[in-house]
Specification:
alpha/beta; Rossmann fold; seven-stranded mixed sheet; 11 helices; about 30% helix; NAD(P) transhydrogenase subunit alpha part 1; proton-translocating NAD(P)+ transhydrogenase activity; NADP; oxidoreductase activity; AlaDH/PNT_N
Length: about 375
């Protein structure tokens, strides 16, 4: 295969089919494509096959897909298969050689699944591996889903907190606003800060990358400066040294006690989430305070987090939801489907043929199987 050749680029047979599979992971309610985007893809000569019930969790009945021009059937036999969460090895084995698979594939941790894709002759594109560059912003599924998660985390915190978020002035007196601290100011963190501010809380953000302070202030929040910097590459923070981590935790422990709500979002790709909220910090929080740990899937940012559970420690509630975007499947699916459609339009030409150009940094960066030099 040449550098710019697609696995099936020379085919001149029937139009390529795009398969939209039904997610089977417990609690996953999103779908990889929504009816409103089917016509856009059909203009490229593509045919859409939707697995029966694929959109039910996102309140999209099969009839809405068929009315938009799709058919229902075996989505796993399509030429291009779209998924939300990583498929199992058994599902990967259902794919025919030459299939293009697109979705969240967790290539840094799902080594067995990536190996199965290679063995099956599948060309796989992991949306979380798309380079975070300007021209790929419309394909950035990590950001679109992080926006949903950040918003949802604040609603969860507000529900758990036994206080008002906003300041209220009533005949019975004035209620001060809740104080909310967001640790980790990426896309999810910024959305959490903006949402907390909209709900009337006094919002404060902290990140080891000092350059994001201006972004925090841009959404009306305050900046918590602890004097520690861990600016890294690709928009992520680098891992702190042991000395830096100890100093950070000491200062955070002192600061956290002054907040009613703490929302943590700090992640390092492919590694355990850094501990930001120690057991000591939890003990120093006021009774009724709430921690929402958004990093539970990789161990959590709070030392006492139990992934997927709500626990109470010393009158402090620690909540660790594992898939917040799936709790808002309607808009999460719409945003994700737009991300995938943009990527599809990059690898499919105007006549509905695969045109995978591995010299394109977006295509090469996202490819995790099907091209030997892209697979670790």
């Amino acid at each position: 295969m040449t550098e710019t050749e697609s696995p099936t680029e020379s085919q001149t047979g029937p139009p390529l089919t795009i398969g939209v599979v039904k997610e089977t992971k417990p609690g996953e309610r999103r779908v990889a494509l929504v009816p409103k985007l089917i016509e856009r893809l059909a203009r490229r000569g593509l045919k859409i096959v939707v697995e029966p019930g694929a959109g039910e969790g996102a309140q999209l009945a099969d009839g809405l897909f068929t009315e938009a021009g799709a058919t229902t059937g075996d989505a796993w036999s399509a030429d291009i298969v779209l998924t939300v969460v990583p498929p199992s090895v058994s599902d990967i084995e259902r794919l025919k050689p030459g299939t293009v698979l697109i979705g969240f594939l967790a290539p840094l941790t799902n080594k067995a699944e990536v190996a199965a894709m290679q063995k099956a002759g599948v060309t796989a594109f992991a949306v979380e591996s798309i380079p975070r560059i300007s021209r790929a912003q419309a394909m950035d599924a990590l950001s679109s889903q992080a926006n949903v998660a950040g918003y949802r985390a604040v609603l969860l915190a507000a529900q758990r907190l036994p206080k008002f978020f906003p300041m209220l002035t009533t005949a019975a007196g004035t209620v001060p606003p809740a104080k909310a601290l967001v640790l980790g100011v990426g896309v999810a963190g910024l959305q959490a800060l903006a949402t907390a501010k909209r709900l009337g809380a006094q919002a404060t953000g902290y990140d080891v990358r000092p350059e994001v302070a201006e972004q925090v202030r841009s959404v009306g929040a305050q900046w918590l400066d602890l004097g520690i910097s861990a600016a890294g590459e690709g928009g992520y923070a680098r891992e702190l040294t042991e000395e830096e981590r100890a100093d950070q935790q000491r200062r955070l422990t002192e600061a956290i006690g002054g907040f009613d709500v703490v929302i943590t979002t700090a992640l390092v790709p492919g590694r355990k989430a850094p501990t930001l909220v120690t057991a000591e910090a939890v003990r120093g929080m006021k009774p009724g305070s709430v921690i929402v740990d958004m990093a539970g899937e990789t161990g959590g940012n709070c030392e006492l987090t139990e992934p997927g559970e709500d626990i109470v420690v010393g009158d402090v509630t620690i909540s660790s939801p594992l898939n917040l975007p799936a709790e808002m499947p309607v808009h999460a699916s719409e945003l994700y489907a737009r991300n995938l459609t943009e990527l599809l339009e990059l690898i499919v030409d105007g006549e509905g043929r695969l045109a995978v150009d591995f010299s394109d940094e977006v295509v090469a960066g996202a490819c995790v199987a099907g091209r030997d030099e892209e697979v670790n």
